Amino acid sequence: MKYILKFLPRKLLIKYSFYLTPLLRVLFKGNKFIDPIDGSSYSKFLSYGYRSIRKNALCPGTLSLERHRLLWLYLDNETNILKSNLKVLHVAPEQIFFKKFKKFNHWNYLTFDINSPIADIKGDLKSMKFKDESFDLVICNHVLEHIEDDKMALEEIYRVLNINGIAILQVPINVNREKTFEDSKITSQYDREKYFGQYDHVREYGIDYKERIEQVGFQVEMINYSDNFSEEMIIRYGLLKNDLIPIAKKII
């Protein structure tokens, strides 16, 4: 079973998660790794990746990845966001967060995506039908790298946020690349994976991602939260170093 899981696509894991994750919690029971999102522990995390395979990336019992666990730790340890009364828009909702946030009675929580089966509202991020200043918090993680006109999407997120609202805008960032690389002529799945890291990405963001967000009006802080943990805890939580968390604020 463990050998088979190495070759099982994450999409299938997610599709059948209701049936698989209880079994995987038992199969990988242990104390070496912890998912801080729900406190569950495991003998190992699974490998995951496209162009390069990352060890200890995917939690077998929750299907969280490194970025999910890092963001949860930051929000839980450093902010009041998870405890505040907020109007929240969650774009392309991740399963692990969706399950948690749906239970928050203090959040007015709405999910949005172009085709996700767990989205409350289906639509295009570049032309949302919400009124101006409708939300206190927008969560939009690992979405913009899929959108050809990411500036238009960012402008829409800015528009629907209240004054002093916050947008969490995680994307894969190559910290060794100064400027974002994109080329509209690169369209095949093979070439996109080769140049952008994944078959359905349309760019590889560089460290100028902060400036791209700021161009639409946000004030942005790029938080390298993994620096707050020892090497031992980075391994135990299954985190990535230099996995930046972009926190964008609408301050006028």
Molecular structure report:
This protein is α/β, with parallel strands linked by helices and 252 residues long. It folds into two domains: 2-64, no CATH class; 67-249, Vaccinia Virus protein VP39 (Rossmann fold, 3-Layer(aba) Sandwich), CATH 3.40.50.150. The protein is 29% helix and 25% strand. It has helices at residues 2-5, 10-15, 17-27, 66-78, 95-101, 150-160, 189-196, 209-214, 231-237, and strands spanning 29-35, 40-42, 46-49, 53-58, 86-91, 107-113, 121-122, 135-140, 161-168, 181-182, 203-204, 219-223, 245-249. Strands 7-6-5-8-9-13-12 form a seven-stranded mixed sheet. Strand 1 and strand 2 (40-42) form a beta hairpin. The termini are far apart.
Short synopsis of the structure:
By secondary structure, the protein is of the alpha/beta class.
